[in-house]
Predict the 3D structure of the following.
Amino acid sequence: EADIYQTPRYLVIGTGKKITLECSQTMGHDKMYWYQQDPGMELHLIHYSYGVNSTEKGDLSSESTVSRIRTEHFPLTLESARPSHTSQYLCASSESRGTNEKLFFGSGTQLSVL
Amino acid sequence: AQRVTQPEKLLSVFKGAPVELKCNYSYSGSPELFWYVQYSRQRLQLLLRHISRESIKGFTADLNKGETSFHLKKPFAQEEDSAMYYCALRAPGGSYIPTFGRGTSLIVHP
C-alpha cells in the first residue's frame, strides 16, 4: 500500500548523541519535507527536497542535515542532539503537480533529548 | 515573505453550534490556500483546498482576497470534528513550499 513511513515513533536519548530519523515513502513522490511541530506553534520547515540529490534548508535554523540518495528515502540526522531539539518531527511528501499540491504526512517521530 | 496567522489557539463550542476557525495570510500575489486537520492519534491530513471550492465533512472555506482571509466554517459542529486545524499557504512564483499557521484546537462538547 502506498504510504509514508517514519521510524522510530518515539525516541528518548541523551545529550550529545548522534541520531537519524527515518522517513520513507512508497508513493512515488518527488518532493519531500521535514517539519518540526511543537504544541501551539506553527509547523516549521526544516528541510525539503525536490528529488534525488536535491536538498534545501527551510526557514527554521537547524543543526540537522538530510540526504536524498533515493527517491523514496529522506532521512534526517542530528550530529549532536541537545535538549532544545526535543520536539515532534513530521515528514511529508507531495507529487509534483505544479499547483495546489497536497501534502501527505507521516505519523511523526517524537524526540526527547535529556 | 508569506505568513499565515491563526489567531485562536483554542475554540470550544457545543454540538450543533456554528463553527468558524479564522485564518489570515500575508502574501501580495494570488496564494494557494489549504486547511489540514489532525484528529487525536492520527496523522495530519488535507481537509480541503480553496481551488476545489468543495465541502468536506460539512466544512467550507472561502478565500477573501480583500481581507486576506480563508476562514473555515461549519454550520453545525459535531463531536467528531474535535481536532487540530492548520491553515496553510503556498506561494506561486516562489519556492512553492507550504507555510503553516500555528493551528487551532477545536473542541466540540456534547
User: Anything to note?
Assistant: Residues 4-113 of chain A form a domain with the Immunoglobulin-like fold (CATH 2.60.40.10). The mean pLDDT of chain A is 92.
